[in-house]
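Supplementary Methods S3. Input chains for the assembly prediction are listed below.
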Amino acid sequence: MNSPDPQTPPKGSFVTEKALKRLKKRHAAEARFKFYGQAAIGIAVVALCTLLVSIIGQATSAFSRNVLSFDVTIAASEVDPEGTKDPEEIARNVSGFNLLLQDSLSEQFLPEDAGRPLQRELYGLFTRLAVLPIARKTADNMSTIGTRQTFDVALADDVDLFLKGGVTDRKNINLGGLQAITGSLEDGVQIRLKDDATIKRLDDALSDFTPEGTDTSKPTALVNIGDTWFRLAGRDGAALDLTYIAGTRSLPSEAAKTTALVLAQSQENRTLSDRQIAWTMILKKEGRIQSVFNTSLFTHSDSTYPELAGAAAAIVGSLLTMLITALLAIPVGIFAAVYLEEFAKKNRLTDFIEVNINNLAAVPSIVFGLLGAAVFINFLGMPRSVPLVGGLVLGLLVLPTVIIASRAALKSVPPSIRTAALGVGASKTQSVFHHVLPLAAPGILTGSIIGMARALGETAPLLLIGMVAFVAEVPDGPMDESTVLPVLIYKWSTGAERAWEPMTAAAIIILLIFLVMMNLIAIILRRRFERRW
Amino acid sequence: MLETFGHLPVSWLLFAVVAAAGFVAFFVGRTNAVAIANGGTARLNSQPNYHGYFVAMATVVPAILVLGLYSLVGDSVVRGELANELPQRIRDLSQIELSQYIDRIAEHAARRDAQATGNALFDAASARYTDLLGISRLVAIALALLAAGAGFFMARRKLAVEFRARARVEDGIKLVLFLCAAIAVLTTIGIVASLLFEAVRFFSKVNFFSFIFGTEWNAQTGADFGAIPLFFGTFMIASLAMLVAAPIGLLSAIYLSEYASARFRSVVKPVLELLAGIPTVVYGFFALQFVAPVVRAAATWINALPFVPDTFLAAQPTSALAAGLVMGVMIIPFVSSLSDDVINAVPQTLRDGAYAMGATKSETVKQVVMPAALPGVIAALLLAVSRAIGETMIVVMAAGQRAQITGDPTADLTTITVQIVALLTGDTEFDSPKTLSAFALGFVLFIVTLIFNLIALRVVQKYREKYE
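Predicted structure tokens for the full assembly:
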């Protein structure tokens, strides 16, 4: 038998050269198409990862906080000037505690004759209300008055941000030892460095930070010799002219360690002055500034100062709102599903209800906010900004979701169960409530939890019923003014100061943790109770 | 006595009383039924428990109806009575002023620790308000007790050996179930009524056509209400979002349902669903913090190219593009999971037929599966568009506020939802055209999304029935 000639395929075969070419093309198209699919999934996954990573990255700095620890004798004359011995009075006496803190700082840093501007600069290291926790602690434990105590106070947001690497770019340069130091603190100090190579490094750092084409924003160099801080005023070859800004008020010795802190921006362009930075660095060197876990995020309520703000009120508000939502949406949703799935005859009315529910599930959430504003607040005269109204609005919002999920769960219970119940003499209602509903319960529960998770993340409708109000107190009940986590996130994200950004991200993480927990519960329930009939 | 009653948190008290009455009625009914049967409960048509339920139901329901009615109208009756008793010079005030005055009285009266204000009339009115409230509550409670008692005795008289208590109780349960189902309809009615009512009030102040066709929008100052720029902004951002979501969502659905292994699918599907579970405010923050600066930098870079005029792109800090991109990512899971469902619903026989003809997988998808799934896919896309139009937080945070019509995606644009939020946060008086315009916008939004949803749901339903 002759083997077929590979060059000329037999007549009538499909395997022509043209066909092979076409096949190659078709396979290429196949591979391309598959790649498109993979690329699409890849983009979606990358987008998700970017989102999570960027938010977690931002949030990490908000979970820690820099605090200043200071020793102070709690003088009764300061914290309780009128001698009331009333804990509430003391807790409210913010200015008294502020004076304690300010005195202890100015004793260390300010000369006797320091003017108001200098004082204000120093006291700007922390916010007025930062002493509030101390005041409360003292009020709780009155016996500490008159004794010496150590407290931690939160530093102002700008200082905190600076310590975390924000505010301005910077570079630390070790200048090595000094050859000579002359002049006086009042009129300016001249130093000469031992090693000329360090001058070059300083120059490089300065020119690195000088933006091209503009000379409005010049970098600043702060020079630290021993415990004294200077600003670089000018340079003549290897000799540096320095101006005293902070620290020990005496000419440092030549043996002292010399470093330079080069900052990308001059003090006009940043939120912290040179002096404040120097004070911060001194305090840090003394070990009095520490980074601690930011518990105030969970224990404090909202505040106008980012370093004091916390999400406690919003978490409680969210829980209260969720409670109302659950009380409305879950029973009503389940009963509605039972009616539609088990009792409703197929007629116009039930058809209409069904279409209606499907439609309602796709109505934009903000429309529910309009409903709440018009009906609950304007028409029924309910108060604004309370969890009761928020819960009602969200309850109506998730009701269709719960109904649809519950119907699916009821539908998956096989008819044999119902028939068996009816067969032993149960009524229709008994068969549903004693047999079908318990068997459908896991599915219903899963659907309800997912619906509640949706309600927990909802923001827009709550803005319209006024839950965006500033709430400084943890709400006590569903009729108290309050806010919820997503709205807090929205509010913080619009804050002007930079420090709000990590705070917002941290609040987002808290919200996401709640959501993940709810979804995990739903998944576990589904896994554990899923049943194949 | 009256005063204390005017101050009490009555609702909790009543709840307890009604619940207790229900329990008592249940046990009385049950005991009665057993007594009727002389212990031979098997002779009863329904079990004793059902007799108990029946009596409890007959007792509690009338009381609840009375109290529910009171909670709806009681307050306005009290206010009307108080208004009648106020001196003539106050009653001569305009309707709004009078109701504000009474609001203040009610607020003052509600505070138990309220001090006398020194204004004799106000204090007297406040005390009188508390008294009236007390009276009205006592009357309501008396009526409720009366109704409960009547129901209780009527129900007890009905109990008999052959009384079908179970059927009665179950009728009641069915009614409750039906009412629950009706709440969804009531919600829709509430939405339509409130939007329509406020929108009509708005259009009595602002010409309908100048709203629909006007091109100037300055609602904050109450000057111009031409909504075209808002419609344009909404359309623009929704289109950008769909440009991202439609191809990515569709292609990933195809890959997941046709190519992916079961294991890959079981990992990737939940990950995509995760995107749908992230709250929109988080997307908004992401858009504002990370995407908007990138978009802006890219636009500035394009502007700096030598052959591009300097002001070619607006390069705003907030932009339609940033909002659209992020919204697209948010919508991906809707498109993909809905399309996944329709693609899976295409019967395997159609695919097998195509393979038997020698088609490759992609050819099968493109020429057999997709045409068969097309109506469902279109429905999915319509639902996604409706989502994009109604989405609020992303655009509020990242799209900007300027009402303008421009083809430049890096300019900041505003949308219907952004304006609703802007108009309704803060003080809201419900009679200024500024506030009412938000409801007019809401009405437009509702109608547009309703149309999209209806078409989509109809298509999905029709399409599903074809293969079943």
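DSSP finds 17 helices and two strands in chain B. The mean pLDDT of chain B is 87.
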